[in-house]
């Protein structure tokens, strides 16, 4: 190490030590008072609350401070899909009492139910609800309240407001609340030492009811039931998986715009619960009503099943799942292989079975087996093992000769290797050479481009 470099290091070290000592002295001489801290915190909280007030937010006092909320009212005549909200207030809960074996539902008034749905910052045991969605009947109107936390410090006030509302109701209605929403609230109530009536309330979990009344459906997500049972479809809705990310962005920016459509997503969830309640009640009626309900609710989900009435009307096809990047690459490779096998070229022959090869039966009399055994892969055969087998076969065929038959066998296996491993350089190099030799410039350029993308240089 040169003396010049050592000298520079000593200067840097001395400069850092000088700043550290100066910083320590400043901290010791600075006197912090309680007033200073309160003013700083109050400034942050005030700016966050003011931003929400510009969007119509209000607040109410609770035992744990000011609880902030947004509210939106809907008339009884509000149409949600094929049903009106008024049907949710007039439904009879007796049938649900038998299904859920909960005697408390016998005396519960449907217009005194609280419809509850949470939006949380995650699914772990340390997660908390940054939005508590509560739907309640207020005379001839249905109000959807969103008690939210402008800052994380506002959670106890929101929970306290929720507990006060629950004490005045006769029952709780959720969708998967038994497994998530109620447990989350119980854990957060316990964390802050807030008393709550959740253990004593009658609880209608509509997900469990849907599973009991529609056991033949392939799925019971709320979005599926909205489309099939309620005839309601959403547009530009925030996917539930993206909601925790929205909350993290809000903490960084403080912009209420990031959460407004999350609250609207929550509002639609609550409205769907209100009208799903009478829809599920139809399945508890007479045998004819129950049959009509199950047929209507299951038609689109089980559309491939033949109709008992012999109707020629076709059911709506299921939604196609979005392709992953790998799936797109595989489908493109198979399409190219199909193109390579057409256009006057002879279809490649497949290998004889192992048993026929051992018995030395003539090739033309053997029942051929496909070179790509999906059954082996389903039974757990690793793709790497299959790739090694294919490479060995290609190298063997290259040694045996260069006839048309061997060439077709080689190309067949090379395409299979690319289908299993889209960036396999061994297969890509040989496919480029093969298609250049046959004069197929389009396919040669395609695989050459993929080979260039694979190269680390």
From TrEMBL:
InterPro entries from the UniProt entry: RNaseH-like_sf, RNaseH_sf, YprB_RNase_H-like_dom
MF terms (GO), sorted A to Z: nucleic acid binding
Ranges of Basic and acidic residues composition bias in the record: 346-363
Pfam families: RNase_H_2 (PF13482)
Boundaries of every YprB ribonuclease H-like domain copy: 114-277
Chain residue ranges for the region called Disordered: 1-36, 285-363
Biased composition range(s): Basic residues: 1-22
Biased composition (Polar residues): 305-314
Gene3D superfamilies in the record: Ribonuclease H-like superfamily/Ribonuclease H
Protein name: YprB ribonuclease H-like domain-containing protein
UniProt organism field: Persicimonas caeni
């Amino acid at each position: 190490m040169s003396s010049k470099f050592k000298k520079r290091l000593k200067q840097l070290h001395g400069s850092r030590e000088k700043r550290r000592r100066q910083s320590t002295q400043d901290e010791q001489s600075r006197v912090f008072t309680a007033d200073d801290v309160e003013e700083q915190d109050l400034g942050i909280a005030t700016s966050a609350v003011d931003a929400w007030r510009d969007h119509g937010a209000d607040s109410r006092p609770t035992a744990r401070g000011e609880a902030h909320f947004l509210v939106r009212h809907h008339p009884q005549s509000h149409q949600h899909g094929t049903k009106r909200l008024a049907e949710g207030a007039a439904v009879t809960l007796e049938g649900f009492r038998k299904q859920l074996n909960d005697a408390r539902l016998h005396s519960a008034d449907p217009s005194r139910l609280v419809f509850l749905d949470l939006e949380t910052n995650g699914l772990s045991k340390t997660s908390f609800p940054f939005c508590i969605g509560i739907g309640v009947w207020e005379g001839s109107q249905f109000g959807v309240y969103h008690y939210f936390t402008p800052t994380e410090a506002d959670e106890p006030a929101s929970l306290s407001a929720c507990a006060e509302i629950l004490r005045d109701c006769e029952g709780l209605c959720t969708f998967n609340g038994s497994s998530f929403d109620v447990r989350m609230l119980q854990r957060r109530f316990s964390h802050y030492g807030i008393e709550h009536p959740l253990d004593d309330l009658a609880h209608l979990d509509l997900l469990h009811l849907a599973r009991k009344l529609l056991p033949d459906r392939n799925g019971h997500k709320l979005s599926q039931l909205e489309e099939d049972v309620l005839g309601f479809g959403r547009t530009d809705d925030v996917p539930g998986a993206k909601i925790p990310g929205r909350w993290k962005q809000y903490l960084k920016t403080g912009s209420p715009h990031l959460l407004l459509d999350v609250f609207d997503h929550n509002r639609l969830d609550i409205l769907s619960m209100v009208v799903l309640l009478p829809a599920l009640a139809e399945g508890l009626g007479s045998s004819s009503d129950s049959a009509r309900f199950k047929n209507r609710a299951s038609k689109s989900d089980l559309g491939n099943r033949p109709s008992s009435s012999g109707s020629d009307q076709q059911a709506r096809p299921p939604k196609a799942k979005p392709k992953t990047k790998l799936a797109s690459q595989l489908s493109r490779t198979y399409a190219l292989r199909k193109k390579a096998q057409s256009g006057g070229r002879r279809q490649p022959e497949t290998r004889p079975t192992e048993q026929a090869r051992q018995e030395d039966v003539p090739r033309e009399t053997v029942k051929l087996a496909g070179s790509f055994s999906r059954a082996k892969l389903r039974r757990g055969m690793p793709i790497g093992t299959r790739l090694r087998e294919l490479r060995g076969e290609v190298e063997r065929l290259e040694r045996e000769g260069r006839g048309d038959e061997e060439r077709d066998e080689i190309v067949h296996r090379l395409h299979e290797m690319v289908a299993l491993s889209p960036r396999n350089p061994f297969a890509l190099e040989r496919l480029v050479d093969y298609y250049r030799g046959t004069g197929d410039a389009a396919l040669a350029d395609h695989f050459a481009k993929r080979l260039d993308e694979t190269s680390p240089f």
